[in-house]
Amino acid sequence: MIVELVIVVKLGGSVASNVKRILSVLQSLGEDILIIPGGWVFAELVRKLDVRDDEAHWMAILAMEQYGYYISSFGIKTIKPRDFDEIEFDGIRVLLPYGLLINHDELPHSWDVTSDSIAIWIASKLRAGRVIKLTNVDGIILNGKLVERIQASKLIGIQTCLDKFAPKLMVEHGIDTFICNGFFADRVKDYITKGRARGTLVEGR
After folding, report:
1. What contacts 141, CB < 8 A, 6 or more positions away?
2. Is the pTM of this model over 0.85?
């Protein structure tokens, strides 16, 4: 297993109804964990609005902050850094990313870039090595079957549960992403503690 200063967990809005259970499992690990919130229903509202890519980009990032505050309502502390050296690792924190992204505007302003890509980009800046994505599916499904392991380069241009830009970022920065079903929260525990669980490991390295 990779020894890291922090574990980066992308917590999708699709598992919002199971957030309390997920957080309980993560807290039981006693690890430093940085949660990157998805956009949940707030980002879906932005998608429905007829706004330009630039405005939609920043509105969607603010949508992540709204979900982040929802996650924090379960007793998780928020952090709102403008620079990466301001991020302190001490237990579980949920990142409110707007200030960080405004100060480091490096990602394309497009719906190809969602919280998946943002989580991978943040992991690369923190040299975390991997992202764990909790969503409402078991992992990458190809030809009707769950894929346990696949190179990110093979997913470029393919529609999956990752956003379109994420595989390219993973290859560029050498970041792995493990995708698992957040409605079975013990799977993330198994992956962190044992290095193995039901899901898909997408390898950027």
Report:
1. 147, 160, 161
2. yes
